[in-house]
Amino acid sequence: MGHSTDEKHEKKEMDTRSLSSSRHPSLNMAYIHKVGVPPKQNLFKEFKATVKETFFSDDPLRPFKDQSGSRKFILGIQAIFPIFEWGRRYNLTKFRGDLIAGLTIASLCIPQDIGYAKLANLAPQYGLYSSFVPPLIYAFMGSSRDIAIGPVAVVSLLLGTLLQNEIDPTTNPTEYRRLAFTATFFAGITQATLGFFRLGFLIDFLSHAAIVGFMGGAAITIALQQLKGFLGIRKFTKKADIISVMHSVWGSVNHGWNWQTIVIGATFLSFLLFAKHIVKHIEKGINPSSVNEIYFHGEYLGKGFRIGMVAGMVALTEAIAIGRTFASMKDYQLDGNKEMVALGAMNIVGSMTSCYVATGSFSRSAVNYMAGCQTAVSNIVMSCVVILTLEFITPLFKYTPNAILSAIIISAVINLIDFQAAILIWKIDKFDFVACLGAFFGVIFLSVEIGLLIAVSISFAKILLQVTRPRTAILGKIPGTTVYRNLQQYPDATKVPGVLIVRIDSAIYFSNSNYVKERILRWLTDEEEQKKVDYQPRIQILIVEMSPVTDIDTSGIHALEELYRSLQKRDLQLILANPGPVVIDKLHASNFTNVIGEDKIFLTVADAVSSCSPKLVEEA
Amino acid sequence: MGHSTDEKHEKKEMDTRSLSSSRHPSLNMAYIHKVGVPPKQNLFKEFKATVKETFFSDDPLRPFKDQSGSRKFILGIQAIFPIFEWGRRYNLTKFRGDLIAGLTIASLCIPQDIGYAKLANLAPQYGLYSSFVPPLIYAFMGSSRDIAIGPVAVVSLLLGTLLQNEIDPTTNPTEYRRLAFTATFFAGITQATLGFFRLGFLIDFLSHAAIVGFMGGAAITIALQQLKGFLGIRKFTKKADIISVMHSVWGSVNHGWNWQTIVIGATFLSFLLFAKHIVKHIEKGINPSSVNEIYFHGEYLGKGFRIGMVAGMVALTEAIAIGRTFASMKDYQLDGNKEMVALGAMNIVGSMTSCYVATGSFSRSAVNYMAGCQTAVSNIVMSCVVILTLEFITPLFKYTPNAILSAIIISAVINLIDFQAAILIWKIDKFDFVACLGAFFGVIFLSVEIGLLIAVSISFAKILLQVTRPRTAILGKIPGTTVYRNLQQYPDATKVPGVLIVRIDSAIYFSNSNYVKERILRWLTDEEEQKKVDYQPRIQILIVEMSPVTDIDTSGIHALEELYRSLQKRDLQLILANPGPVVIDKLHASNFTNVIGEDKIFLTVADAVSSCSPKLVEEA
């Protein structure tokens, strides 16, 4: 072993020697490594690669490669219905885990469903219906092993708020319900379409920070609305914002709160918050068909579509976030687009069987995971318990006091307020924290939709800011190495006299090309003023380190040309270091390499510096 | 000199020797360079720096630094009215250049103004009015020396189309004109506001490619509309798209085109296209006041505001593009935000003196530059010629045949079709070319607004694509160096056995964090499959080169954590190379550095490789 290390050492010595000589172009030109120009790509190939990376980045057809026809068919069926794949390896041990997890989440979901249906202004049985059909469909089509499907608080609240703006649920309950099914149908269509056309990446635009803020705000709004049942107030506002709710609460103080209700609720709430055990609660019988209730024409079609799209996107965000979290905990891959098709299909079928929008629930999925679920069979178990409940014991639920229901909902949603995450966001990224706060206050002070809008807008603003104002840095040589790094990060790095080395930290596109050019000129002006003060030699060479510049467009090349012209007027040399494959290709295509000279482009900053420093020495 | 080179050489040798020994951590730990953690910044300072970089990246207050009170006042006046700065250095030589240039652009602008006013569905004198007041104001407030101010074809067409949708100019000419002044007023307000709040970077979102396509489409649309005057057709469509226009043209073939008109037009057009000389054409007297004609309330206020905003933004884009082009040709700096305030002020004053939206004209600015203009005085000269024309010779213009006017307009707009630029765009960036084509066909087949919308949407889509699907690359060692580069660009670079080196080429944000994580895992899977086929040792170490990763947010850190967990399950080591200042700061804040271990973060890929390769050797 010692021998091999020695050998290695010797080889390294040689490497570094040849490297050091390569840094003396005047002595030995041949050793300078040229910047590679990638082989010319066929236009169609290039286009195909881009499309593939954008829409098929997960390479979904990989398992189909080199397979026979019948095998391909089986794989296709398994791709749409993953149950046929993992089902073959299913056994009793796994079923034991799934049975216990399924029973646990069923006991949790039944009272939650009843409460959430109320948030959506629907009769309680619709919550239960939505915990029967969708989980079954998901079990066949979904690929997450830990997600628990059913109605969730945030989507119920959002759906309730949006539908209420169109139809009053107390005066027109039938039309309201029909619009709810229409919205559910289109929520499913939206989800399935996004998945089918592989546009799943669109939901990535809702940032984690925005979701934390939105969820926290929605949880507080929901909890506040439960004050109605909790305090036994009769006259209560229909609006969801905190000001209207507090107005209702304090307005009814004079009429006296119902103290018995408060005691029951408070006792039960504290019981739930500490023990995490759940008791249970309408109309008997399983889901009736609702195919004929969906509006396929008329004015409500458009409204249902719009509401469904928003609710469907929010539901997707929640389900995908949950799915990804648990998949990474158990280390399996989740195909986002396939998940979306599964969720979409389950909501489309749901809308035809009296269900409203279902998705993955944060609280129940966590319980499912903790109770030891193995596969989506736990959803089937839960579904069976819900059928039995619907068929036999629903009439008993009518005796459940409202205060208890409110307590159940409060205890469920309170977990959505994730202080730890908010603190971490504050620590890591202040801008993210603003997005988080914006969504939070938008939801509690204005409305659920506006909170969502604020969250999305701030997320977009952040992306735009990132692309318009990329970072630039001045580099210096780290003592004892040939490595050039950001002077801010490595204060002991030293500048090379007469040379300014600037690194651009982003692709150069139309949105930032002018900024980049002007920023570099400003670095130069700053530096020149500094040199004047310090009586140091003036700057003769500007080296632009292009390693992080992954792409450049026509505006970017214009900006470089303008930079070059400005430098020429000031009698300064422009040198580029390490342009990437795409960039060097485009610099060639636009003839810019000939304008500045091929010999002004180097593989590394170190090469560039060593090639020009002899000249500086000569002139000194 | 020889001596100093020798000395340098010796120093280098030492450097490289210490470098090479630094690559043997087992021999000499002390030489490994740690990744620097930048000094902790005050939150307020950090915030101030971000705001400064976003809104004041040009450092507008630099000249005010360390000046006395009265000097600051003078500098302030000069900042708002640059004429007081350059005016003091003005002399007779400069005036000669400006006089000739001013007379030249005046002779060009008078017939153009009359034609453009027709595009905006206004009486011809309003075109001339707009070439009198706005250039004067600009001369005092603007900082470009070469731009020629006045009505331009594209903005006139856009304004005409948008206003026509609201009010019919033939039946309600007075109301139409009033709305035009209202729109002009708000165009000015929009421009001045963007400049004042330093939001000038917003116009950078209209990419160069989109502008080329939009301008080309608008030019063809304008030229087609001139067929009415050129062919002497009486009944002509009011719509601007190519299908309606061609329908009008061929529909009137049967009724016979007016051959005399065609001969005059064709002769004149060919004369103009070859000789570039212009003849001249209405109501006598200078601009009447129009303060009372602007709608400050009522339904037209909102419409005027909307139209003015769109027209103002397009006018800005054109003026800034022209200003920047000529500024870079003569190498002076242009303050985009100051320009916007100047353009805004000139349109606000213009709207009160019977002018419609004026901006910088491509064709006239080029002529101005070529004729040897020195300062904005050429605009004052032009303005004076226009006053004289308005006062004395406008009545003569009524004898100008329509065919000649059409020919003048066609010859002016045909220069807006920039084939060369389109070809260059095709060569450099195919996606840009799609944006260019989209804008072009949108304008000629649909309408000016839709073309503009398509251009903006495609530009945005490009930005979004850039942030959702950043590039990643596999690195290899370039033989004879310690430099690691993209294997695609440098096919002779070699992989290190047992190690996979991946570079992420973008900041890691919520919009791409999942993609980045999954892409890295896919690289790993691909590589492992390859190794299996080739019977090579399995991969034990994944080095992520973070140099281009300028920033990371909470979602990005989550993704890294998930990546780390996945790698742990597969018994692989995660090593980070060269995280930047912001990234290392956030990795510390989120405790991720402790999770993976401080000793797993290296300054360079070479350091990382050399620190782990002894281990690989041991195990081999």
Automatic annotation (TrEMBL), chains A, B:
Topology within the bilayer: Multi-pass membrane protein
Pfam families (alphabetical): STAS (PF01740), Sulfate_transp (PF00916)
Signal peptide stretch: none
Span list, region Disordered: 1-23
Chief location: membrane
Protein location: Membrane
Keyword presence, Transmembrane helix: yes
Keywords, alphabetical: Membrane, Transmembrane, Transmembrane helix, Transport
PANTHER family: SULFATE TRANSPORTER
Family to which this protein belongs: Belongs to the SLC26A/SulP transporter (TC 2.A.53) family.
Protein name: STAS domain-containing protein
Organism the protein comes from: Carya illinoinensis
